[in-house]
Amino acid sequence: MLENSGLFDSKAIKAQFPTLSQVVSGKSLVYLDNAATSQKPLCVIEALENYYRNNNSNVHRGMHELSRRATEAYESARNRMALFIGAESSEEIIWTRGTTEGINLVANSWGTQNLSANDEILLTTMEHHSNIVPWQLLAERTGATIRYIEMDAEGHLDLTNLEELCGKRTKIVACTQVSNSLGTINPLEPIISQARSVGALVLVDGAQAVPHQAIDVGRMDCDFYVFSGHKMCGPTGIGVLWGRKEILDKMPPYQGGGEMIKLVQRNRSTWADLPHKFEAGTPNIAGAIVLARAADFLEEIGFDAVKEHERNLLAYALEQLGAVEGIKIFGPSDQTLRSSVISFHLGDIHPLDVSTILDAEGIAIRVGHHCAQLVMQHLGVTVTARASFYLYNTYGDVDRLVSGLHSANNIFAP
Ligand SMILES: Cc1ncc(COP(=O)(O)O)c(C=O)c1O
After folding, report:
1. In which element (H, E) is residue 28 found?
2. Is residue 4 part of a domain?
3. Buried-most residue among 52, 70, 169, 246 (CB within 10 A)?
4. CA 185 to ligand 1 center in whole angstroms
5. What distance in angstroms lies between residue 412's CA and the mean position of ligand 1's atoms?
6. Final residue of a domain: which of 281, 299, 317?
7. DSSP category for residue 183
8. DSSP for residue 266
9. Of the residues 299, 326, 358, which one is the last residue of a structural domain?
10. Does residue 106 belong to any structural domain of this protein?
11. Reported pTM
């Protein structure tokens, strides 16, 4: 199988990721846990080192050279991320710790201000827990009700009763763009258009989309968009909440502290303008700067090429895995409607045993409920094994996975 189809040379790309060149359990590492977190290219690691070696300082506070440098790099990273997702202005880019914090910020700030009993929050049963639990906490505080868009047997959202689910009482719809447990790519247009028709806001969880495809929040026409840096070749502890300026402007602060105020008096304070109103305390300066470098890295390769490579890899993986005895692959059968996340069971072998055998072969996959217990309940299982691919994975990685699964079958053969 050719590793470099078209302009894409996945072996050359893999060589830029130092962690991927190591030996694990006596074999070269095959990393297939990308939906959990991605590895980091050398340019990102170097950007982090460069920041701490040369420019480390707190931002917005000091009138000295290092602080000026750090502030400039930090704010230009914000501009970079605005461009990266098609935001109109960098004021709409709020730095967070990641997707989870972005959703909690919206649920706490916008949600507490705008929801009351009789209001409804519409989610889907496909969501990661981070797009369920903050809304449950909000519902408890406000008396609002949570409703769910269900899935069909293959893990597509069932939109047949969308008009009934998303009605006059619906104040916000929060939906993932791509499922982390099934790989389903969701049709956001009908959901956003129905939400618009009843005046509800829409939050899109882009955690599993941003690493793999170009995003244009303007074109998407949602109100909030959240994602994590660590899944897109960036560092942990940094992510982005994008929101429409007119909505963010009206929202109260999420946390109080330094950086987010204009004036503090004994009994009350006034808030800084966007985006600082939502960024209390010393931020993850290095994380933000390095995330911008990760965005450069991905765009230098080009999302068209990344997407094509992942589509080819997915097709090859589904074909090869399909021939493994006893395998059951969950999620959409239509490859155009799924990402490069493959959840599976191997006969009666417990997914933990599958993963242990693969680990002994130097192959990293994930086993668990993937923070998506509603999905597991829908599938009637408690856990799945999950292999998830990224731009640096090769056809050779798929072959190693398949051969590891054959080994598992042999070990557990009756
Ligand atoms: C779809 C989805 N949403 C939210 C999250 C939470 O992301 P984080 O833990 O980076 O906040 C994840 C992480 O796996 C995810 O896959």
Report:
1. strand 27-28
2. no
3. 70
4. 15
5. 33
6. 299
7. -
8. S
9. 299
10. yes
11. 0.97
CATH number of the domain that 332 lies in?
3.90.1150.10
The tokens 């409920």 sit on which residue?
369
- The encoded tokens of residue 63 equal 């009138």
Q: Is the CB of 125 under 6 A from ligand 1?
A: no
Q: Does the C-beta of 100 come closer than 6 Å to ligand 1?
A: yes
Q: Considering only CA atoms, which of 104, 96, 150 is closest in space to residue 123?
A: 150
183 ligand 1 Cβ < 6 A: no
**How confident is the prediction along the chain (414 residues), in pLDDT tens digits per residue?**
445 555 678 889 999 999 999 999 999 999 999 999 999 999 999 999 999 999 999 998 778 999 999 999 999 999 999 999 999 999 999 999 999 999 999 999 999 999 999 999 999 999 999 999 999 999 999 999 999 999 999 999 999 999 999 999 999 999 999 999 999 999 999 999 999 999 999 999 999 999 999 999 999 999 999 999 999 999 999 999 999 999 999 999 999 999 999 999 999 999 999 999 999 999 999 999 999 999 999 999 999 999 999 999 999 999 999 999 999 999 999 999 999 999 999 999 999 999 999 999 999 999 999 999 999 999 999 999 999 999 999 999 999 999 999 999 999 987
Domain that holds residue 158: 45-299
Among protein residues, the one with the nearest Cα to ligand 1's atom 14 is 36
* Number of domains forming the structure of the chain: 2
No. of helices (H) and no. of strands (E), the chain: 15, 17
264/290 same-domain check: yes
Q: Does 366 lie in the same domain as 263?
A: no
CA-371 nearest atom, ligand 1: 14
Do 285 and 357 share a domain, yes or no? no
Query: Catalytic: which of 43, 166, 233, 371?
Result: 371
User: Which residue has the least CA distance to atom 16 on ligand 1?
Assistant: 180
Q: Is the dihedral of CA 111, 112, 113, 114 positive or negative?
A: positive
Q: Would you call 222 a catalytic residue per the annotation?
A: no
Q: Tokens representing 402?
A: 């398949």
CATH of the domain at 245: 3.40.640.10
Residue of 97, 100, 178, 343 with the most ligand 1 atoms within 8 Å of its CB, for mutation: 100
C-beta 366 within 6 A of ligand 1:
no
Q: Is the CB of 215 under 6 A from ligand 1?
A: no
**How far, in Å, are 69, 282, 350 from residue 276 at the CA level?**
18, 11, 48
